[in-house]
Amino acid sequence: MVAPALLALALGALGVVAVPPEGPLVSLSASDAVVRMPFKVTCSISRAVPATNVTITANNRSWPVTLSQDGHQATAEVTVTERGSVQLGCTVHAGSRKLQTNTTIQVFYVPVPLLNVTNTAKAGTELRGQCSLPPGAVSDIQVKVVATGHGVLVDFKKPPVTFSLLVREEDAGGRLVVTCEAKMFPDPLRSKSQQIHVLVKPQLDMELCPPQQNWTEGQDGILNCRAKGTPEPQVSCSKDGNFLTPGIFHPINRAHAGTYLCRATNDLGTAERNVTVWVQYNASVPLLPVLLGTLLPVAVVILSLAVGYLLYRQGKIGEYRLWRRHPRPDAQPLRPQGGSAAAPNGSAAP
Fold it and tell me: N or C: which end of the chain has fewer CB within 10 A?
């Protein structure tokens, strides 16, 4: 049995109808042949033959031919869909003569490798997998495993092979792709790839969620707080039981000032951060409201006291004068504040 690595060989010169001293009139050669992979078939024509028409066939099927400028070399690109023996032929029409040559080649098959790895992984954990070949693959095929951002995990060797890598946060967002390559040297390779969906727990950093934020009363303000993570975390902020949605503009007043507790949550957990909001406002007070609200009540109080005092004084003076006109026998005279007592007969006391 012929070894698989020797199945695809360049074809040598083949016999033709007439063989001149300088060599065959028509020769046929082919590059390595792999199932479902295009390969070239070349038909060389001696300069002694004035070729007018060239046909190249594979298993009795004709393929488009490209003829060189000098007309002495024809090339066709051939693809076969099944492995095994393939009959190649070249027919050259030179005037009334028809020259033919043919040969048989063996086409081998490099299958798509099997990649066994999960499509989801958490950042900070180890991802493990295996690369192998389907049953019936020839033993000369080797496999290689690579991952974007991590380089070669396993270089070419006989399958099956196992591999592992540490999943990082920077691998999130569709950046991590693991590829298994199968190849029989020096022929083309076939590969199988798997994109890894990397999960990352929520993170609230100072760039996306600043701990100090300044607003201005009377304007529209926005609470800036976003989180990293996969799946994308949901962020909510609250102060004294009142929730304020981040990323949305709100009319600002000084009651918004204070410290908010912001939480970012996804399937992997929760992250928290305190955000202090300062609200700037105009502290100047109008003069007229101050006068009306402060000085006017004071003036009213003073005026009320003055009026009360005058009424009280007028009452005392009237009472004294009434007593002077109609004194009672047993009554003592009223003494004005600061004066002397009056005698019973109405005369002044000594």
Answer: N
